[in-house]
Specification:
This protein is an alpha+beta fold and about 180 residues long. It contains 7 helices and 7 strands; from the N terminus they run H-H-E-H-E-E-E-H-E-H-H-E-E-H. The strands form 2 sheets. A 5-stranded antiparallel sheet has the order 4-3-2-1-5. The protein has a two-stranded parallel ribbon with strand order 6-7. Helix 6 packs across helix 7 (about 155-175). The chain starts with a helix and ends with a helix.
Length: about 180
């Protein structure tokens, strides 16, 4: 009788621990057991001016994902400022978001970072500064839920495109 009571307690403990671990991994994806923790090694590879993509959880972003036939529904430009990484993004309102916070807003904290080919030749410090300066005119603007191509309101991919286009245009003119 004593053996079966001890066995019952051990099995109950193991099942309880397993359930708690499962719930913790679902609720807190960046926990020590998930293997998904965003480390400084990953952040060390990210560069100023990279473009970052994620899948957002909002119903509107789901519609964007379906309409574009893409697994991604949101994007922004990574800016390195005073040694910290931020994402300049078009949300309500357009703003600069710390990268770690931005990642938390995506589905399962997953994201993809892309870089221009020959980025070191194209994204010079002067060009990156022009991008950051040009970005300021959009800071605080309303999000464009109707996806109109104007500067009154702005959506995420429009923001990225206009900032890159403006920086490239200025670089060509001055060359």
């Amino acid at each position: 009788m004593k053996k079966s009571k001890s066995l019952f307690l051990i099995i109950t403990f193991l099942l309880s621990f397993g359930c708690a671990l499962f719930v913790a991994m679902k609720v807190f994806p960046n926990n020590p057991f998930s293997g998904k923790k965003v480390g400084t090694a990953v952040f060390g590879k990210i560069q100023d001016g990279d473009i970052i993509f994620q899948t957002s959880e909002s119903p509107q972003c789901e519609a964007v994902r379906i309409a574009t036939n893409s697994k991604f529904s949101h994007c922004g430009i990574i800016y390195k400022m005073n040694g910290d990484l931020f994402v300049f993004e078009a949300v309500q309102p357009v703003k600069l978001t710390p990268l770690k916070d931005w990642i938390q807003h995506g589905r399962d904290n997953k994201y993809l970072v892309k870089r221009l080919k020959n980025a070191t030749a194209i994204l010079t410090p002067a060009t990156l500064q022009k991008m950051k300066d040009y970005s300021q005119q959009f800071n605080g603007k309303e999000y464009d839920a109707y996806f109109e191509w104007n500067d009154n309101r702005i959506y995420c991919s429009e923001l990225v495109w206009k900032i890159y286009k403006n920086a490239r245009w200025h670089r060509i003119v001055k060359t």
